[in-house]
Write a structure and sequence with these properties.
It is a single chain. This protein is mainly α. Helix content is 66%, strand content 0%. α1 runs parallel beside α4, α4 runs antiparallel to α5 and α4 packs across α7. The longest helix is centred in the middle third of the chain and has 20 residues. The protein is globular. This is TerB family tellurite resistance protein.
Length: 137
């Protein structure tokens, strides 16, 4: 199980992902707030992280990194729904965040390739896990 510092780090990373294009849209904010609640992070701490990000700490657990990557995929899809549909910047951003988390580029590439085959570009968790299991050393 991850501790509070790791939870704050996960949330801070997601906020950074959402702020990559300079602002957090209302839908993104609500999604992030929902993740904060799921991680049992108080709203005050969530608001603090928006203005004061913490340094990235590499997650030790491969499964936690996969879960975090899935959250970022969901966040990217929310972001794209509120934009003009251009996803190239979001895909590049997601790819780079995945690499930074230490996930294999083959797995990330496969997830990004398969996204278009699923409704709302949301890769089901079981498919995502299978992709990462295949490329996990």
């Amino acid at each position: 199980m991850i501790n509070k510092v790791e939870k704050l780090n996960l949330l801070s990373e997601m906020i950074a992902f959402a702020k990559y294009d300079k602002n957090i849209r209302h839908l993104e904010y609500n999604f992030l707030l929902g993740v904060a609640k799921q991680l049992e992070i108080r709203r005050e701490d969530f608001e603090y992280l928006i203005e004061n990000p913490i340094n990235y700490t590499h997650l030790k657990s491969h499964s936690e990194r996969i879960v975090q990557f899935h959250r970022l995929v969901l966040l990217m899809n929310i972001e794209q729904e509120s934009e003009d549909g251009n996803n190239s910047a979001g895909v590049i951003k997601l790819y780079n965040f995945g690499l930074r988390m230490g996930l294999s580029h083959e797995s990330i590439t496969k997830v990004l390739y398969l996204m278009d085959n699923f409704p709302n570009k949301i890769v089901p968790p079981d498919v995502l896990i299978d992709i990462f299991k295949t490329h996990y050393n």
